[in-house]
Design goal:
- The chain is of the alpha/beta class.
- The protein contains 17 helices and 14 strands.
- Helix 3 links the parallel strand 2 and strand 3.
- The longest helix is centred in the middle third of the chain and has 20 residues.
- The N terminus is likely disordered.
């Protein structure tokens, strides 16, 4: 009886160890602290858990009082996807801006400074960078999160980002394996499918993951995508062919494999989160990301119970679960061993993000700086879930600082152009767009504005694929706060 109890306890602890759950609030709830005591080895932070770096540091200290080697994970890509600066916008441009500059030293420096700030807040595992090659210009979820559409460029900047961030003691997770760049569907909503041959995947999508592995990325995140050339039946997250045979076998990867959010509809809507979790671990995943949407104790209990029951039923080999749990513990040991020493902040480079954003800015057309406060018309698309709608973006706030009296409004839909014209009155219009090429209503709104007001300035803060137009066209290659500042400085001539 004692032996059975001990075995059951080990099984329960291993099941908890492979989960990376989120929670509500800016302090740790009692149930989370209790679960950490029972074996939970990782906790995930999202925007709802953040008010300031100081508050995050206090929160992570509270968590580590329960378990010193706890992994604290976050989805902090910089650029459009920020959690640490979710209320203000990021101090760092995202991948697409860094790819536009194409200076691997700069990418390394940006990642190192971002990593330093994460480490200072007690975060030691980042679900970044995106190593996807944005080969489909209509991709609704990757876009500016990718370094670009050129395979070699993405590979070298993926490696530089990993080197920079891990130099700060924060483990990286190259995502979304085997590549989410050629999708036309967001896996938050449904199951994307990539119908290209294995040779195309090897020469295009897998190159950056090979670079990530060579750079020593401590983790790789799987994608909830169906790639029939690799597995005609199961999405990557649930595919032994993709996670074990390809990633571990063919590519020789020996670090942690973590899933994308298991509650995303591509998995939850087809397999359910319990079955999806069991299949993912059986396929070779070592950690289950959950908590972007489901972030309560019941979810943790459901998933840990599902794993334990699958082992007891013979559906999941106990050795596979134990191996997954040990890989999580191995990453915890790495993070503890690479924790920055006191005084490491002396090496801070607080302006590197702004310098990078300024270098990424591209201006087309002859332009005299604005001398009067303009009207900023933000043509605002629906934000994808990865970016979220909490984070401010645009140029209006920075232009207000430089040109007091600047006014602004947000517009979308079929009448956006006419509504923006009416709101602007006689003021010079600065039209701010995000991926004009993907939104016909946005392109039509620009047509209306430019026909009536040819002196309209256009600021593209997404992927600048549409032809530049307007009296002058600024491409920021991302919508981070620093990208908006760089554009505002150019517009105001400072």
């Amino acid at each position: 009886m004692t032996t059975l109890a001990r075995a059951t306890d080990t099984l329960t602890r291993d099941a908890l160890t492979v989960l990376q759950p989120g929670f509500a609030g800016t302090t740790a709830p009692d149930w989370l602290l209790r679960r950490i005591g029972e074996g939970l080895a990782s906790v995930a932070l999202f925007g709802r858990n953040v008010t300031s770096p100081e508050q995050v540091a206090a929160l992570t200290a509270q968590l580590r009082a329960e378990r010193e080697d706890l992994l604290v994970a976050i989805d902090e890509e910089g650029g459009d996807v920020t959690r640490l600066e979710v209320r203000t916008g990021s101090s760092f441009p995202g991948n697409h801006a860094l790819g536009a500059v194409d200076d691997v030293g700069l990418t390394r420096a940006v990642a190192a400074e971002l990593g330093r700030r994460l480490a200072a807040a007690g975060v030691n595992f980042n679900w970044a960078p995106s190593a996807d090659v944005n080969s489909n210009p209509d991709n609704p979820v990757i876009g500016v999160r990718a370094f670009g559409s050129d395979t070699d460029l993405v590979a070298r900047h993926t490696a530089a980002y990993i080197t920079g961030m891990q130099s700060a003691g924060v483990a990286t997770s190259a995502k979304h394996f085997p590549g989410h760049g050629d999708t036309g569907i967001d896996s938050h909503h449904a199951m994307p499918r990539i119908d290209v041959g294995a040779d195309v995947l090897a020469e295009r999508d897998l190159v950056s993951f090979r670079a990530a592995i060579a750079a020593g990325s401590r983790a790789v995140m799987s994608a909830h995508i169906l790639v029939p050339a690799l597995d005609p039946e199961l999405p990557a997250t649930l595919s032994r062919r993709i996670l074990t045979d390809l990633l571990r076998g063919e590519l020789g990867y020996d670090g942690l494999i973590v899933t994308d959010g298991i509650e995303m509809k591509a998995i939850a809507g087809t397999y359910g989160i319990e079955r999806g979790t069991v299949l993912a671990v059986a396929a070779g995943a070592d950690a289950i990301c959950v908590g972007g949407g489901l972030h309560d104790e019941g979810t943790v209990r459901r998933l840990s119970d599902a794993l334990a029951e699958a082992v007891r039923a013979g559906e999941l080999p106990e050795e596979r679960l134990a191996d997954a749990a040990e890989r999580v513990r191995s990453l915890s040991r790495w993070a503890a061993a690479n924790r920055p020493a006191d005084g490491a902040s002396d090496a801070a480079d607080g302006d590197v993000g702004l310098r990078a954003a300024r270098r990424a800015l591209r201006v087309t057309g002859d332009f005299a700086p604005l001398t009067e406060p303009p009207y900023v018309a933000a043509l605002t698309p629906v934000a994808n879930i990865a970016v979220g709608d909490e984070t401010p973006w645009g140029v209006a706030a920075e232009l207000c600082r430089l040109l007091p009296g600047t006014e602004t409004g947000s517009f979308n839909g079929a009448d956006a152009g006419r509504e923006a014209l009416a709101a602007a009155g006689p003021r010079r219009i600065v039209a701010v767009v995000r991926d004009e090429h993907r939104h016909p209503w946005m392109a039509a709104a620009l047509d209306v504005l430019l026909a009536a007001r040819p002196d309209t300035v256009v600021v593209e803060m997404g992927v600048p694929r549409a032809e530049p137009r307007g009296a002058v066209h600024l491409a920021t290659h991302g919508a981070a706060r620093v990208c908006g500042r760089a554009a505002a400085e150019a517009l105001a001539g400072v």
